[in-house]
Amino acid sequence: MVRPVVHKMPEAKLQASCERHRRHYAKHRDDILKRQRVLRSLKTKESEAANKFSKELLKAVAKALRRGDDDESESESDSDDDSEPEDDENIKLDDLPECLRVVKDIKDEMLAMIGDDPCKFVEGVFCDYVKSFPEDSSPGDISIIESSISKVQKILNRTIPAQDQILNFCGVSPEWHAADSISRFLRTVLAYLEDIECLLFSGGVCELTLAHSMGEMMYQKGIRI
After folding, report:
1. What's the pLDDT at 122?
2. 37 or 114, higher pLDDT
3. Which three-class secondary structure string do you get for 144-181?
4. CB-based contact 67:101 (threshold 8 Å)
């Protein structure tokens, strides 16, 4: 067997590598082009599916908003100016547009309170809790974490009925996936906050500090539900 040539200069190594790639391409040209065509076809199909999903979702939300505006104008004409608006918890989810309107309102509220990064939000809550530590090394104000859990749970409790009704109206559709993404986002935030609370109740501040220093907390790992 002929011993391969050993190139020592960088220019010679680069030239030899290019030559090997040219020979490989010339030998397997048909297979390489076939794989490229298959990959392009898959990417095109995925892109078309994503665009279709986005268009259907936008169409559904726009329809819900138009229906919501009509309902709002009718209710204003039938009621006094001093009447209070109805809460999402008391709204009857009688049709798909109403469900989508509720989901959109929940999403806006969720983003206003949490933002688009659950890890960053929980890190902020955790920092607020750490800042509440008194000077005598006793535990901080646990109500900071508990109130955050309560607020997120309240939003989630309003999301689930709307998501279930969307499933009843149109099955596992783009509209349902939109509601499900909101639900999973909120469940992820809850899991992060409850992980902190559980560490405090089980091992106290020492256990919490150790888990944080080792990067073992759920929000530090970025685990998603």
Report:
1. 93
2. 114
3. HHHHHHHHHHHHHHHHHHHHHHHHHHHCCCHHHHHHHH
4. yes
